[in-house]
Write a structure and sequence with these properties.
By secondary structure, this protein is an alpha/beta fold. The protein is built from twelve helices and twelve strands. Helices cover about 35% and strands about 15% of the residues. Bound molecules: iron/sulfur cluster.
């Protein structure tokens, strides 16, 4: 482990007895930040209620906070009253969902992460060229449903390495793989390896589909896992990238790993015999929740916190076009790129 290892390895043994390795990057990615700010700005601009199709991001705290401020989360578009405003979540939607919204005369704001939209565009392009598209992802995940909906007749879902054996294509000379943005990098490469064994002419995506935020958070965990007796990942159970962080920690040597939404879910018994605790958080997790975990650990003697920095992140996305237009009309000036107000949902700045 570069940097942090050099620092803490030279510490006297008694200082290093109980310590926390804190992953960076962790927490909010640019796509989540943009989606959360979109709902906040929509509430400010149009007033409550603002409808949101599905959870805007997969985090219990964020959803609960926005609900208190007037967001109404629905599962399907037809639950939104005719003519109301609906925000589509960061995970993206299939074209048919846009059609449904139009039929109901809804005002839509599309908070799909631009990196998910990129995968949608790839799917459309390869389908137009009549490729068989093998979409690696988790069955039923909203992002996969949205991407598959772009070209259902061309896309076959491949849910992990073990499902490769059942995959069939029309023409093995014209096949490409794409993926969900929040998968395990290592497991996806294993799936691709098996697919390529079966279809040697398999084409790669034009660029990585697993996004920078997913990759960076996994990289940080890999760098510290072997030194950790316990890895605490802050995130919700339906957050794909958060669940992957626990798996990556265990695969790379952490002796235990747990996913928690809140610090009060930590069981004191997890700390029995533990010297080093790793802490990280998924891409949809506000920093305030990590702070609560660090406070809990400090209260249990783990107040020596060492950052493990795997990458620097500075990406920011503009708000959705339709919202920018309305904000500009209301204020007379162009809105900034996303700058989150930590007071709103407890979000913090990545370090
Ligand atoms: Fe976008 Fe990646 Fe964040 Fe998903 S995890 S919202 S794809 S940046």
């Amino acid at each position: 482990m570069p940097g942090a290892t050099d620092t803490h390895d030279s510490r006297p043994a008694e200082v290093a007895t109980k310590r926390v390795l804190l992953a960076a990057p962790r927490g909010y990615c640019a796509g989540v930040d943009r989606a959360v700010v979109t709902v906040e700005k929509a509430l400010e601009l149009y007033g409550a209620p603002v409808y949101v199709r599905k959870e805007i991001v997969h985090n219990k705290h964020v959803v609960t906070t926005l609900r208190k401020r007037g967001a109404i989360f629905v599962d399907e578009t037809d639950e939104v009253p005719e003519g109301a405003t609906v925000v589509f979540s960061a995970h993206g939607v299939a074209p048919v969902v846009h059609d449904e919204a139009r039929a109901l005369n809804l005002k839509t704001i599309d908070a799909t992460c631009p990196l998910v939209t990129k995968v949608h565009r790839e799917a459309v392009r390869f389908a137009d060229d009549d490729f068989d598209i093998l979409l690696i992802g988790h069955e039923g995940h909203e992002e996969v449903v949205g991407t598959a909906g772009e070209a259902p007749e061309h896309i076959t879902l491949v849910d992990g390495p073990d499902s490769v054996v059942d995959v069939e294509v029309r023409n093995p000379d014209k096949v490409v793989w794409l993926s969900q943005t929040t998968l395990s990098v290592d497991e996806t490469m294993e799936t691709v390896r098996r697919l390529r064994e079966k279809f040697p002419r398999l084409q790669d995506p034009p660029s990585d589909d697993i996004c920078y935020a997913t990759q960076n958070r996994q990289l940080a965990v890999k760098q510290m896992a072997a030194e950790c007796d316990l890895m605490i990942v802050v995130g919700s159970r339906n957050s794909s990238n958060s669940v992957r962080l626990v798996e990556v920690a265990l695969e790379h040597g952490s002796r235990a790993g747990h996913l928690v939404d809140y610090a009060d879910e930590i069981d004191d018994a997890w700390l029995d015999g533990v010297a080093t605790v790793g802490v990280t958080s998924g891409a949809s997790v506000p920093e305030v929740l990590v702070r609560d975990v660090l406070d809990y650990l400090a209260a249990h003697g783990f107040d020596d916190v060492l950052p493990v920095v795997a990458a620097q992140e500075s990406l920011l996305f503009s708000l959705p076009t339709e919202l920018r237009r309305d904000l500009k009309a209301a204020s007379g000036s162009e809105p900034d790129s996303v700058r989150h107000d930590p007071a709103a949902t407890g979000a913090g700045t990545l370090r």
